[in-house]
Amino acid sequence: MKIYGDSNSGNCLKVKWVCDKLALPYQWIEIDTRKGETRTPQFLKMNGAGQVPTVAFADGRTLAQSNAIIRYLARDSALVPRDAFTAAKMDEWLFWEQYSHEPYIAVCRFLMVYLGKDASELDPEKVKRGYAALDRMEQHLDASRFFAGDEVSLADVSLLAYTRLAHEGGFDLGRYASVRRWIGDVEAFLGLPPAR
Questions:
Q1: How far apart, in Å, are the Cα atoms of 165 and each of 10, 110, 140, 171, 180?
Q2: Other CB atoms closer than 10 Å to residue 39's CB: what's the count?
Q3: What is the pLDDT of residue 141?
Q4: Helices H, strands E: what count in the chain?
Q5: How far is the C-alpha of 66 from the C-alpha of 6, rounded, in Å?
Q6: What pLDDT score was predicted for residue 28?
Q7: DSSP letter, residue 78
Q8: Cα–Cα distance for residue pair 95/89, rounded to 1 Å
Q9: What DSSP letter does each residue of 128-185 carry, written as one string?
Q10: What pLDDT sits at residue 62?
């Protein structure tokens, strides 16, 4: 299995973390999206959307979209709850992450880290919606240790990727005690050093 990814992308790191946790063998192929490496004819043949992560399997099949990839790779593991409803709740959070979290938390981080924007230059609506996502996470984590059931699931892995770096997008995690506790728990589970 070859993982085409950008080491600075939380969406790509999700795939790496799942492979590492489950001891799945892979070859990481670093792709620089800002140099157009996802727009080459060879890459577009694997993924017509021109996005990372993209996984190429030994049999020639490819798979894109981070949450679809981790859902497939972890399908028979403890990262997917055995109870059907709890697994559906995990999927609910996976879909929410891509629609209501990543477009705000990750985009603000991209603007500040990669485009050198100051926090004052961020779209106020993106900042507002990012904080709304963090508020929702805090509310959930006040009552639950993890996002789907009593153990770490793919929902936690997916949400960790950009939440642990939210401060790089100008978000203050200081008022989110439950989110900070959860970040530490999931980082420890995955064997990750604390986010800087």
A1: 9, 11, 19, 9, 11
A2: 10
A3: 98
A4: 8, 4
A5: 12
A6: 98
A7: T
A8: 10
A9: HHHHHHHHHHHHHHHH-SSSSSSS--HHHHHHHHHHTTGGGGT--GGG-HHHHHHHHH
A10: 97
- Which tokens belong to 32? 């620089």
Q: Which residues in the chain land under pLDDT 50?
A: none
Is pTM, for the whole model, over 0.85?
A: yes
How confident is the model over 27-65, as pLDDT tens digits? 999 999 889 999 999 999 999 999 999 999 999 999 999
Termini Cα distance of the chain: 30
Which DSSP category does 98 fall into? I
Closest CA relative to residue 55, chosen from 4, 97, 90:
4
Query: Which ranges in 23-98 belong to alpha helices (H)?
Result: 41-46, 66-73, 84-96
Under DSSP, the state recorded for 81 is -
